[in-house]
Amino acid sequence: MINFSRNKGFTLIEMIVYVAILSIVFVLIINTLLIITRSYKSIKLTNDINNSASISLERIIREVRAAESVNTSSSILGSNPGKLVLNTTDNLGAPLVLDFYVENNSLKLNKNAVLSGVLTKDNVEVTGLIFRHITSSSSQAVKIELTLTGTERNTTKIDSFYSTAVLRGSY
User: What pLDDT, in 10s, does the model give residues 9-62?
Assistant: First the structure.
């Protein structure tokens, strides 16, 4: 004779406890994944803003240091959005006019009135650009105030950057 007195399987209370524990573990895993995703978006956005600022400011500073003068009649100085027009020369010594300006929330560079390139990334907007021309009895400089706003899906970040460059031959 076979004895069927032993009960095999789980009781209803055991199943409820196991399902509750499993549900809590799944909620914690999903919450952790969402936090990691949000952190990645924020880090990527910060990286895009910093790269755009670095590229833009390095290019402007390099061109200001190489420039012979600031064209104050064509530049928009001390207001937002600013425009900086530099008088310089190319590698062969020919006159060259460089123009840094904001159009469609992007920082652009013109060389002799021809678009040379966009200096900011697509998901980064220039929300503030102010150039200030600093002159003294012995030197000239340009102070740059750049505010960038980055957007990545539902995340928005704003950061400001400042720099100053002295024109060549004026120090």
Answer: 778 898 999 999 999 999 999 999 999 988 888 899 999 999 999 999 999 999
Show contacts of 50-54: CB within 8 Å, 24+ apart.
Answer: 50/159, 51/121, 52/107, 52/119, 52/120, 52/121, 52/124, 52/148, 52/150, 53/146, 53/148, 53/159, 53/161
Task: Please name the residues in contact with 47: beta carbons below 8 A apart, sequence gap of 6 or more.
Answer: none
What is the C-alpha to C-alpha distance for residues 104 and 125, in angstroms, rounded to an integer? 8
Spatial distance between the Cα atoms of 49 and 147, rounded to a whole number of angstroms: 10
| Residue 57 confidence (pLDDT) | 95
How far is 119 from 107, CA to CA, in rounded Å?
5
Q: What is the pLDDT of residues 90-117, one digit of tens each?
A: 888 899 999 999 999 999 999 998 998 9
Q: Catalogue the E-assigned strands of the chain.
A: 69-70, 84-89, 95-103, 106-111, 114-118, 124-135, 140-152, 155-166
User: How many other C-beta atoms are found inside a 10 Å radius of the C-beta of residue 31?
Assistant: 10
169 has a pLDDT exceeding 70: no
Answer yes or no: are the C-beta atoms of 86 and 71 closer than 8 Å: yes
Cβ atoms of 101 and 83 within 8 Å: the answer is yes
The structure's pTM equals 0.76
